Amino acid sequence: MLQERPSSQIRAPLSLLAIFVVIALLQLVPLPPALWTLLPGRGAVVEGYRLLGIPLPWLPLTLAPNVALSSILWLLPAFATLLGVVVLGAFRSRGIAAVIVAVTLASVAIGALQVIGGTSAYLYQITNHGVAVGFFANANHNATLLLVCIPFLAALQATLLKRSGSQRSASAIRLLVAAAYAVIFVGLLINSSLAGIGLGVPVALGSWLTFTRQRPAARRSLVAQRSLICATVLVSLAALATIMIGPFGNNLFGAQTSNVELSRQTSFALTFRAARAYFPIGSGTGSFQPIYHLQEPLASVTTTFMNHAHSDWIELLLETGIVGMAFAGLFLTWWVARLRVIWHAEEPDPFAQAAVIATAAIMLHSVVDYPLRTAALSAVFATCLGLMSGVRPYTQRSRLPSSARHLSL
What we know:
Layout: H1 8-26, H2 33-36, H3 43-52, H4 65-74, H5 76-86, H6 93-117, H7 139-163, H8 167-191, H9 194-212, H10 222-245, H11 264-278, H12 288-295, H13 312-343, H14 350-365, H15 375-388, H16 402-408
Helix pairs in contact: 1-13, 5-15, 6-7, 6-8, 7-8, 7-9, 7-14, 9-10, 9-14, 11-12, 11-13, 14-15
């Protein structure tokens, strides 16, 4: 059932969703040859038709229209999740947090079986064998889910402790939450994602700082609070720097001696080169793979191929050009505005704060991977945006007349 009078908070996320869909659909509109041949990077397409002796047809902006359509349809779960939260109000914040925590713990359990039991426990044929991928095919995506779980578990703990009626129940809650944190920590270790471990430090510290400061017994002076924030930032930066420049074999900053053609150094360099060639319009949604294959040296082409740029932001630049970057800037402006509103509220919503931390973790991980191009994580991201929007769950009004309600009271 739709909310009777949509609040103003709904307009911004729905407008962003509408803009995103319009950008994607416009790339499927056929253009006359006199127009699409003027777009950057289309010279090879024109040459191909000339060599075949075929007249130039009407073509859309994207160079991979079939994949572009499937990419739009693939985002339907995320769209439905966002609409379910902001329009229908079909959610309970505590229920969402509980589901995220439960699914994450189950994913860690499956990951442990994968590490111990071998290939029989993996859910996909093409996957990262030897590490815990859980419900996913890519270990980095399972690491993203673990990162998202941390702030929601902290928010769930803060809410349950606030509702606890005795010291015994509070102690039981702390014990269960501590056990869940231990499982998540083990999950990050057996997952072996460097980005997951590096981002786990700022996510955990940020969650602790956010939900500990709200307790009356933990209130400190302004100077102490600022010192704690500065210390958290410094420790987080040190952890990320250690992962980037440490001897852990990361394939972005370290020296590459093997599988150079599959490293992020190579992927980022070739994708940036292609993005410059197709700027400012871009090569079109879903066109990464054919465009990337044109950039690869023939000597490096093997049976293993690069399915994505391993950076959602760089791939967005390649496929959508300046329009996609403008949309990203618009989205980040809304995200920062909502962050300020959520943190400056008289009574901050813990689950909205958890959503802010979770979306920040996903966007940071997207710099070096592609979590938002998986249906599960994009749906989680959309749910977090719904929680950030400020809408409240829909509650059906009582059908009793006012006099009956007063009598009942």
